[in-house]
C-alpha cells in the first residue's frame, strides 16, 4: 500500500494510526493508506502526541516545530501536517514507496 498524502500550500498532510503505550518508539510502516506510528509514551495529557511529532520530525530530518497534529488529537486516527516537504519527499525520507 501507499501512504495517502495531500500536498498543501505549506507542506503535506497525511493520516496516521497512533499506537501509544508500545514497547518502543518506531514508525511501523504504511497500513492501508495511513502511517502506523508506535510510541512508548502513554495517551495522557498529550504525551503520546508530542512523542509522535518528535519521532516524525527526527525521521524526516526536520525540526519538531515542522510537524503538527491537525485533527484527531484524542483519537488513534490522526491527521498530521508536515511543513516544508511534499508527499513524495516524505515517502522518500521514510523509505516508503511513492
Give the gist of this structure:
This protein has 98 residues and is of the alpha+beta class. The chain has helices at 47-59, 87-94, and strands spanning 5-7, 11-19, 26-31, 34-38, 67-71, 77-83.
Summarize the structure in words.
The model has no long low-confidence stretch (mean pLDDT 93). The protein has a single domain, classed as 2-Layer Sandwich (Conserved Hypothetical Protein Mth637, Chain: A). It has helices at residues 47-59, 87-94; strands at residues 5-7, 11-19, 26-31, 34-38, 67-71, 77-83. The chain has 98 residues and is α+β, with helices and mostly antiparallel strands. The protein has two helices and six strands.
List the SSEs and their pairings.
Elements: E1 5-7, E2 11-19, E3 26-31, E4 34-38, H1 47-59, E5 67-71, E6 77-83, H2 87-94
Parallel strand pairs: 2-4
Antiparallel strand pairs: 1-2, 2-6, 3-4, 5-6
Record keyword descriptors for this entry.
alpha+beta, six-stranded mixed sheet, Conserved Hypothetical Protein Mth637, Chain: A, 2 helices, 98 residues
The 3D shape can be described as: globular
| Biggest sheet record | 6 strands, mixed
Strand tally: 6
With helices defined by DSSP (H or I, 4 residues minimum), what is the helix count? Answer: 2
Amino acid at each position: 500500500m501507499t501512504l495517502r498524502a495531500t500536498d498543501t500550500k505549506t507542506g503535506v498532510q497525511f493520516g496516521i494510526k497512533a499506537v501509544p503505550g508500545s514497547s518502543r518508539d518506531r514508525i511501523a510502516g504504511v497500513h492501508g493508506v495511513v502511517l502506523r506510528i508506535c510510541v512508548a509514551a502513554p495517551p495522557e495529557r498529550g504525551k503520546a502526541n508530542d512523542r509522535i511529532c518528535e519521532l516524525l520530525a527526527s525521521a524526516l530530518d526536520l525540526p519538531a516545530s515542522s510537524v503538527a497534529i491537525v485533527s484527531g488529537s484524542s483519537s488513534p486516527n490522526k491527521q498530521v501536517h508536515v511543513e516544508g516537504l511534499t508527499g513524495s519527499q516524505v515517502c522518500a525520507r521514510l523509505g516508503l514507496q511513492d
